[in-house]
Amino acid sequence: MNLILLGPPGAGKGTQAKRMSAEWGLAHVSTGDILRDAAKKGTPLGLKAKPLMDLGQLVPDEVVNGIIEEWLKGPDAQKGFVLDGFPRTLPQAEALEKALSTAGMKLDAVLSFDVPEGTLVERISGRRSCPKCGSVYHVVEHPPARSGFCDKDGEALIQRDDDTAEKVKERNRVYEQKTAPLKAFYGEKGLLKAVAGVGTPEGIFAEIRRVLGKA
Ligand code: AP5
Question: Which residues are identified as catalytic?
């Protein structure tokens, strides 16, 4: 099964993608995680991406397209995948179509998360993540056992650089302008499935099962 998750910042894409990967054995590909990792390591990709991410702007299409096109040629793509944060623009969606067709693959569904803005802000302001293993927590909804430290490796948790109120506002603006039009793009292809992204992560996963006919 090959899936795309669409949704604004804080919609729960990463949370649900990890669950889908664990339950169904799908590869979880997060362009945000790939770019943050590159930025942390100071690679040429990271040096290019970091200033844009810090402004809440998108990294150029050709850069992220290249990452996904390469990944699709690798062995993990064959087991099925969930794309989290890609595509984010029309040119990215068109590049993905082309790359999938070249690889003889197709999309099964595009899940679009609908979440009220107030909930998005609460989720993002409370998010903390582990810089070592990437585990994601929420200070209220999903706190670690020891406040401020990762349950898995004991590392001190951090807040993402782009999770300030001002940057989230810009990320939301960019989402509405550049990414939200993809709903119509995939709707016309009969692939779009709306998911009510409110409630517990378990409840939302049950909804995902339902819309995919895997209940
Ligand atoms: P990216 O990392 O993809 O960020 P995003 O799309 O803004 O999404 P988030 O990671 O903020 O949110 P999420 O929906 O995954 O929510 P999460 O599950 O963590 O991209 C970052 C940047 O990279 C971009 O701004 C851009 O610069 C660049 N970039 C990436 N991809 C690109 C591309 N294709 N093209 C160009 N540039 C690109 O949940 C949020 C919080 O809520 C967590 O704390 C979680 O624990 C909590 N939570 C989740 N679900 C629930 C629930 N049901 N109830 C209560 N709490 C919940």
Answer: 13, 88, 127, 160, 171
Q: How far apart are CA 161 and CA 183, in angstroms?
A: 28
Residue nearest to atom 54 of ligand 1 (CA): 200
* Cis peptide, bond prior to residue 87, ω within 30 of zero: yes
Q: How many CA atoms lie within 13 A of 12 on its CB side?
A: 28
Predicted confidence (pLDDT) per residue in 132-148, tens digit: 998 999 999 999 999 99
Q: CA–CA separation, 14 vs 210, rounded Å?
A: 19
> Distance between CA atoms of 173 and 8, rounded to whole angstroms?
9
Cα angle 89, 94, 95; round to 5: 95
Is 90 touching ligand 1 by the criterion CB < 6 Å? no
Report yes or no on whether pTM surpasses 0.85: yes
Pocket test for ligand 1, best of 4, 6, 13 (most atoms within 8 A of CB): 13
- What one-character DSSP code corresponds to residue 158? B
